[in-house]
Amino acid sequence: MGDPAVVKSTARAYRDDLRQLLGLLAGAGVSTLGEATPQALARAVAALPQRYAVETRRRRICALKSFFRYLAEQRGLAVNPAAHLRRPRRSEPLPRAYPWEAAEQMLASLPRRTLLDPRDRCLVACWFYAGVRLGETLALDWRDVDLADRVLHVRVANYGRRRNVTFGEALATAFDEVRGANGDDAPVFVGRFGSRHEANAITEPRGARICGRTTVGSIRYETLQCARRSAATRAGSA
To answer: Which end of the chain is more exposed for a tag (fewer CB within 10 A), N or C?
Structure first.
């Protein structure tokens, strides 16, 4: 059953939530639970103090829905008036984004010491300048990179939707540094032994050389994507 103290605290919160909402129902003229209607419940929820956070309001409504479901299933209530009562949406905070200038400094500070460094710089440049996701980036073959028209053909995308992403001179230069003599069917990003680079080599601790710290700050591909999108929005192009 879990920690008794937690169970007791949960039961107390559930009881307090119900007591408040049933009090609001009584104030609206509902004298018995059988008289409760969806409209009366909606008015009771709307009467909750405006200072309540979204999560608090969601918890109150969950308590009400669970209570009336119990009455309908176990206590013979003819109709569950809370069946279609909706909870407010959770607010989704905007992701943190690097300032464009700081992200450019991060990219410039990546090392140039080994043969794999150009690959890593190009990988980070794809996140930053094209805003593509990690899996989409690693799935790229050279036939997907149109250097003449500066277009990335993203074939492996979320929800199976293909898309084309344009890019500029900076990313084109990064691609030129790793192009070599690879054929069109070859993956753009390969590991030490020539096979396609894997996501876990980047997201796990051993990949900290790419997703780690530069002389400027910490690199995370999600926030580099957001830096690109934030800059595009400010420029009026997104």
So the answer is: N
Of 113, 108, 160, 159, the closest CA to residue 129 belongs to 108
End-to-end CA distance of the chain: 51
* Pairwise CA distance, residues 62 & 56, whole Å: 10
Q: Cα separation of 81 and 33, whole Å?
A: 10
Query: The tokens of 66 are what?
Result: 């669970």
- Say how many C-beta atoms besides its own lie within 10 A of residue 79's C-beta: 12
Beta carbons of 150 and 166 less than 8 angstroms apart: yes
pLDDT value of position 144:
93
In the block, which residue shows the tokens 């909706």? 86
The token pair that represents 190 in the structure block: 């390969």
The reported pTM is 0.50
Yes or no: say if 170 and 125 are a contact pair by the CB < 8 Å rule: yes
Total Cβ atoms within 10 A of residue 69: 14
Q: What does the alpha-carbon distance between residue 138 and residue 120 come to, in Å, rounded to a whole number?
A: 11
Give yes or no for a contact between 189 and 145, defined as CB atoms under 8 angstroms apart. Answer: no
Single-letter residue type at 49: P
Give pLDDT tens digits for 115-130: 788 888 888 888 888 8
Tokens (6 digits) for 145: 């990179």
DSSP per residue, 137-162: HHT-BGGGEETTTTEEEE-S-GGG--
